[in-house]
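Write out this protein's structure.
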Amino acid sequence: MGAVDELTRALVTEAVRDTMTAERTLLAGRQHQPGGSVATSTMNQPTKRGSILSAMGWMFLLEILLFWIPFVGSFIAGFVGGRKAGDGGSAVVAVFLPVIVFSILLGGLATVVSTIPLVGLFAGLGGFAFAAIHAGPLLFGAIVGGLTVDRGGT
């Protein structure tokens, strides 16, 4: 049995040596501190969070659901949309982009229906005024929501 024990001991020693060599090779490419975590090159880089389209979708959905609460419903929709946008600037864009698109579509539709471009222009301006007046609490909520986003320590 002595020969079998020596052979087993030799095989185990070889396997342990190969494993340790593989671990050293693996860790050589990383910055490893004993007792600490393995650092990667992307740990401290800020990530872009939020999107304007997502913010517009949330604002639209919450406006539809909370329209019956006069000021607070629009503020809540704007706040959630501002948080989804990721920052204050994107939140403002997410509020005013639908207003501008609505105005252009309303003006174009009025022009097609009436066949008089001047009527379409005034309908578009009226739609813009109506949407801009309605966007006040939404804009306020979006700015507050955008400013409360945690930017990862910056």
